Amino acid sequence: MSAVPAAGWRNRVRSALDDALWGPETGARLAFVHAGLSALIGVRIVAGSYRQLADTPAALVDPVPVLGFLDRMPAAEAFVALQVVGGVAALAAVLRRRPRLAFAVAWVCYLVLAGLRGSRGKVLHNDLLLLWASAPFLLAPAVIDRRDRQARRRYGWPIRVSIVVIALIYFFAGYHKLRRSGPSWAYGDNMRYVALWGPSIGSSGWKDLAQWTGEQIWVSRSGGVFILGIELAFPLVVFVPRLRAWFAVGVVFLHASTWFLLGLDYWAWAVTVPLVLVDWPAVAQRARRRWVSGEAAEAPGDEAAAAAAAG
Amino acid sequence: MTAGEGGPVAEADPDRAPRGARILVAVLMVMLLVPGVVGFDVWPLTGWRLFSLSRDADQTRWVLEAVDDRGERRVVSLEELPLRFRHAEWPMAELPGASPARRDAVCLALLDPVVAAHPSTIELSLSRDHARLVEVDGEWTTEHDVEPFHSCGREGGEGGG
Question: Using the beta-carbon criterion (under 8 Å), do B52 and A179 form an inter-chain contact?
Fold first, then answer.
């Protein structure tokens, strides 16, 4: 192998990684994702069942490391205060009132509330994907020109980094299945037993479906292959943008079926992933164009205008 | 780069991520990659080991057994208790290596909500349920073998186990 092709290969890898983390996006997309994540954090803060944890006996409290200074759950008033401050801050971030500060306040309130919920002995992941995927937005540009159609690097990096974070999270979930259980996690009887035990793991949203899935061995095995496959293949979304919408659909299906089978609340994951992976302003723009061109084509005797609009 | 009076002067490229962003991303990547690859949990750092252990027909879980004044025992689902007690299985799972005082503390913490849900309860037993899924004539049923581990009564910690 000569030095020139090796250098070319290295340059291509460096360029791909640089583009993955620091590539350009439009201001409209950045503003949309920022507002969407802020809204999602706000909903999780305001709608979450937190204050019910206030009277948890100290013997059942095991603070997560980031809250290790606590020896018991705070009072209900503290939970409510965190929810009010976090909710107002999230709303301010959605409305772009001092967006960087508002987003940071909402994110920290959410981190503390999710940490308190997880301070009962079990490592909870329900809120972690949203927390991690939105962390790059803590330093996202405060001033965004939404009408600027030009994709720019200063707008792109929070979204690109968030996509990399999401891809790594799903990849690690698959990697640890392989590491701890091997490939038979997917094609063995594992998923059959996950489905049959399902109602005892959580509060299954559809017990008959869980039972049926467990009894149909090929359905449960297909489910296992689908889950492990999507998790291990997730890094593809970083380098192949046209796959992102498909992975977003797959993730929604995965978490919806997890809720039906096991009753586990991963809706924050199911909303965060499509929000970040799909360029919704571009989708809306394409839909508008199609709608306008379709409307023009339907207008009698105005085919030329339709052709021009489609143009 | 632009040439100023005193020679070439570096200017920040307006269309690139600022230095602070690059530092934040580097820190985030380290905090995500190290626990992710190694597989440990220091919340919010995590190894993302979601459902990574294969399930089979056998499963051992910690359960609450309420004993009433007639000596009858019944398993009380954590789902019957208020939200703050729903994850009590994890503190219970750490009791085999814990001190008697710690076992009593966990048991007594769960006694009150169990009594509130089932007022005839006079004793609470923290037990291990060795459950097995069995298929009989095409129907799946669960066999239970409940092994009491530690108990406490309404008057206070009359612990055993």
Answer: yes
